[in-house]
Fold this sequence. Notes:
This protein has a four-stranded antiparallel beta sheet with strand order 2-3-1-4. The protein is α+β, with helices and mostly antiparallel strands. The chain starts with a helix and ends with a helix. The chain has helices at residues 2-13, 15-51, 65-78, 89-99, 104-109, 129-137, 148-191, 193-201, 206-247, 257-286; strands at residues 54-59, 81-87, 118-123, 142-147. The chain has two domains: 2-49 and 153-286, no CATH class; 53-147, Alpha-Beta Plaits (2-Layer Sandwich).
Amino acid sequence: MRTVKTSWKHIRRSPYQALAAVFIMTLTFLAISVFAFIVFGSSFIINHFESKPQVTGFFKNDATQANMDALQSQLNQSGFVSNIKFVSKKEALQIYKEQNKNDPLLLDLVTEDILPASVQVSAKTINELAPVAQVLKGSQYISEVIYQRDVVSMLTQWTNAIRIIGLALISVLSLVSIFIIMTIIGFKVSQKREEIEIMRLLSATNWYIRWPFILEGIFYGVAGTLIGWFAATATLWYATPYLESFLKSIPLLPVSPIFLLELLAAELIIAIVLGMLASSLAVLRYLK
């Protein structure tokens, strides 16, 4: 109990230094939270597309119903298809209106003649997307083909890039956090050299002297984690309605509260380790 009171006294006597330490820890764990959200979301989206392999082919304007029926027969004969759905120009316009019902300007610019009819082909596995796509591309009545493998490949590339950038940013912020906490606590230790010498003369152990400073470092880490996690979570909750309208059929949001609590628990563990490491290094440096 006395150790905790001593730590709190150290913090109260230098509020600006404490704010600086908490601020940098907040930035660190805000970055960690955002990075975790992005990686979790992108991984979920990739798994979603992989679990529902689908190829979409857009028909040329001169394609007739007979041409579409012939293409359907060819697709069924390939042996890779689990489901086929045709979307007419009229249906495409209805889908477009539903997706852009809150933007009257976009609705006025698009008519049924502009939008192409299409065919949506579900493959049995994601590995069979390419053969199905080749069948569609081989048709003279198909103008364009898109499929999940392209989307998954693009998402995977973006996810890998984000992971590299995120890990680099978090590493830099973590090192800066350790350096700042070391500097702040080291400065406090140097100011209390005489007091520490007296405690040693009174037979105080090294750990008795170190613990108040270590607890101070842990406090900075925990406080920064709670603020950073709360800021990231509040931003996510605020943005959820907008993200849901953008993601549409992908059931990513809302994020599970269990995931958020697990993330907080993991961040608290990291914060305690960082705070203990930084303060321990500072104390060892000045108490050799």
